[in-house]
Amino acid sequence: PPAVEVSGLVVRHGDGRAPALDGVSLTLTPGRRVALVGPSGAGKSTLLSVLMRLVEPESGVVRLNGTDIRELASDDVRAVMTGLTQDPYVFRASLRDNLLLAGPEAGPDELAEAVRRARLDRWVERTGWDTVLGEDARTVSGGQLQRLALARALLHDPPVLLLDEPAEALDTETAEALMADLLDATRGRTTLLVTHRLHGLEQVDEIVVLENGRVTQRGTHDELVGVPGYYG
Ligand code: ADP
Ligand code: ADP
């Protein structure tokens, strides 16, 4: 089954309001990356809230690996989907300790310390971060903070990675560098990237454009370039 299957979601935030999601469907198969894009107010946060079981849809179903999320405990949902938010939490400690301690992205499943250390070593080797690991995590830049949060999430090898506007708080240049790194580091991982920055999206397998609670376009970057509604 797909890792994540969203079908026919309808969500209304209040009686008499226009629906924030009006029949949204999308499928994330293992190993693929889907970007959910759309202007502010399109319904992106609402969709993530349904995935994280913070909001109950009026109708529609979300299945994780074939199981309706209503049949799963919240902890089970978090063990499958690990999120990266706009504003990652860091402990008052070194980068190394922030990586090794279970971050909020880790989910409830504690990973053996030896496994985490081995994965950290490999990651440090790849990124050359050995020189900065001793620095206080609260003094690093916004871009580095997001890389830290991503590394912390990846150390736990989550089956599904949710990236919620990871570049939102950053200036354009830093955001583009982060998105490039992030797309590089998540290659081959089952990922739902929610973003309104279109930089680098030629790398994802599918782009789903959400507007006013409805999917208005879907396809690869090459298919969507020039299509009205794809504001690339
Ligand atoms: P973003 O574009 O980053 O999702 P939003 O401004 O759409 O930011 O939403 C930020 C937060 O405020 C979200 O948690 C969303 O659910 C909430 N929110 C958005 N619009 C409203 C609203 N009209 N009333 C109450 N909460 C809202
Ligand atoms: P996006 O993340 O794409 O910016 P949202 O999901 O935050 O979009 O918002 C979709 C619509 O739902 C908007 O009209 C927003 O104002 C409304 N909305 C979002 N959250 C709330 C909320 N908690 N209460 C009321 N309205 C909300």
TrEMBL record:
Localization (cell): Cell membrane
Protein name: Thiol reductant ABC exporter subunit CydC
Organism taxonomic ancestry: Bacteria, Bacillati, Actinomycetota, Actinomycetes, Streptosporangiales
Coiled-coil residues: none
Residue ranges of every copy of the ABC transporter domain listed in the record: 4-232
